[in-house]
Write a structure and sequence with these properties.
41% helix, globular, alpha/beta, 11 helices, 8-stranded parallel beta barrel, binds 2-phosphoglycolic acid, 248 residues
Amino acid sequence: MKNRSQKEKRLLVANWKMNPISLDQAEKIFHKIAKKTKSLRSTKVIICPPFLFIPPLTRGLPTHISLGSQNCFWEKEGAYTGEVSPVMLKKAGCRYVILGHSERRKYFGETEEIIKEKLQGALKAGLAPILCIGETIEQRKEGKTQRVLAFQLRSSALLNAQNNKLVLAYEPRWAIGTGETPDPAQAGQIARFIKEKTGDTTFLLYGGSVDSKNAVSFIEQGFDGLLVGGASLDAEEFAKIGGVIENG
Ligand code: PGA
């Protein structure tokens, strides 16, 4: 179950993807976000930078910000060239890890099985996974959205364990980086559907083309927070989203 102190908070997650190009730029954005979100009281800020920038950003990490990674492998250590383990991330200061993002599913062939292994590995290491689920535009047009979401939820299987560390993010694939978003009524319907399926045991975020103008509509429709891509690299805009959802 969501524990009480968590339930009272909203989550605002930044997914920087493969940006920015240098540590110098990353630190500038990070410190600006830290300064501008300092006054948020009921919104927890989580920044997910590329792996390389995680250790330097943990130095002097402000208490109102947590770090997450955008991916991880499932094994603790060993002969897995090019991978980063959840235990390494935890030791480096990460508390969260985004898993099952649609870009990982699309460009790196991540299947439900792979995602499940990663979820288990992350939980075992003590990381809180932020599991992304969402339908493609074709699935949406064919009226299969709920079926796809139910499948993605079921195949994570861990929901049955009611693990209070898991965070869910509904990210319709057609809304990511496109400037398009579901209309509020549709988003609300999906939020209710997912909460019903999960017994409302996890935090539920919305992600996909979130900005400071549309942010409040998702909170009003029952989402507990937001997963922000493009707009999270603009410290001013990202902090503005924080202000909007905190009062939403
Ligand atoms: P976007 O990305 O906000 O740029 O659409 C969201 C995401 O990929 O998590």
